[in-house]
Amino acid sequence: MSRLFTCTSLLRPSMYLAKRPFSISLPKRYAEGDTGSPRLHGDTWTKREKAAEDLYIKGREKNIMMLLKEKIAAQEAVLEKDRAILSALEDQYGHVVEGTYDTAGILEAKGVEGAGRMV
């Protein structure tokens, strides 16, 4: 029996050696063009859906713009309040010099030409 097995194996080549892996042997195939996508100009349902989405987005953007305008108005009110305080301080003490104090307690003026360091 071993001789019969040997003869048939010599006459018929092994199928396992000739096979390649399945994943490498077949190229990937993709859909072509507009397969499965909506029509170019769309039908009534597509147009209605797009209009509803556009309306929702515009409403949301309008709400965001309204909130941002409210925040800007609040910040402008705070800025006006700070300007009023600065004006009152300038009226009381004269011109207020902007700057920072260094470690020795000396004011380093900013924005005033020729002022340098002020005591």
UniProtKB/TrEMBL annotation:
GO function term, MF aspect, one: ATPase inhibitor activity
Role summary: Inhibits the enzyme activity of ATPase.
Keyword S-adenosyl-L-methionine in record: no
Gene Ontology cellular-component annotations: mitochondrion
Keyword entries, A-Z: Mitochondrion
UniProt superkingdom: Eukaryota
InterPro entries: ATPase_inhibitor_mt
Family statement: Belongs to the ATPase inhibitor family.
Organism: Pseudocercospora musae
Protein name in UniProt: ATPase inhibitor, mitochondrial
Cell compartments where the protein resides: Mitochondrion
High-level lineage: Eukaryota, Fungi, Dikarya, Ascomycota, Pezizomycotina
Classification via Pfam families: IATP
Signal peptide: none
Primary localization class, coarse: mitochondrion
